[in-house]
Design a protein that fits this description.
Elements: E1 2-5, E2 11-15, E3 18-22, E4 40-48, E5 53-59, E6 62-70, E7 73-77, E8 82-85, E9 90-94, E10 99-105, E11 112-120, E12 127-131, E13 135-137, E14 140-153, E15 157-169, E16 172-174, E17 179-182, E18 186-199
Length: 201
């Protein structure tokens, strides 16, 4: 099974200083046929204006991965952590029993563009890390592929999101914002940044 979803078909939401494109049903855009792919329940691309961002808010029952495409993400949370996240590193948050955090554009001059993923998980003790992919998740694995030549990804469920560049997957040409949902192995060619999430059913 290969399901290609185009960037233009995502749900777009505007709020002060933030434009978000949702790959899965969210907020006012409810679609019972598009609420999850296995454990994956969100893949959101955010474009955040200088000095803008998300005020403190809670999460629970999920693990979150943030990948910065352009700019710098400023993060702080209820545990007292304060970090700057830049391209090349993934921010991992295990919300589990519950966390409260805020995220903003660290720059007063340049926009911030990032992708955030959420996977359902159990009521585990919250955890936090910044790491270079691949990154092991409770619900699967997160990785970023940049230059692919007949590269194969094999898992029960595979989710792909093109952050930048051009990729070719299962006969389809993909550009930034496009995504793929697959069951089983997929072969990938291309250059850019391709976010890969191997997820459990």
């Amino acid at each position: 099974m290969i399901d290609v979803r185009r960037a233009a078909d995502r749900y777009r939401v505007e709020q002060p200083g933030i434009t978000t494109w949702h790959c899965f049903a969210a907020g006012a855009y409810y679609d019972p046929d598009n609420v999850a792919f296995g454990r994956l329940v969100a893949c959101d691309e955010h474009l955040i204006a200088p000095d803008a961002g998300f005020e403190p808010h809670p999460h629970a029952g999920v693990e979150l991965v943030s990948w910065v495409l352009d700019g710098t993400l400023a993060h702080w949370d209820g545990a007292g952590r304060r970090h700057l996240v830049q391209p090349g590193h993934a921010q991992y948050q295990l919300a589990g029993t519950g966390i409260r955090h805020a995220e903003r554009n660290a720059s007063s001059l340049e926009p911030l563009r990032l992708v955030q993923l959420a996977l359902r998980t159990d009521d585990a003790v919250p955890d936090y890390a910044i790491a270079v992919p691949p990154l092991g998740l409770r619900g699967g694995q997160f990785d970023v592929l940049r230059r692919c030549r007949a590269t194969k990804v094999d898992a029960p469920l595979v989710f792909l999101f093109v952050g930048s560049g051009d990729f070719h997957v299962a006969g389809a040409d993909l550009a930034a914002g496009d995504s793929v949902r697959a069951a089983g192995a997929v072969e990938i060619d291309g250059d850019g940044e391709l976010l890969v999430v191997s997820v459990g059913a």
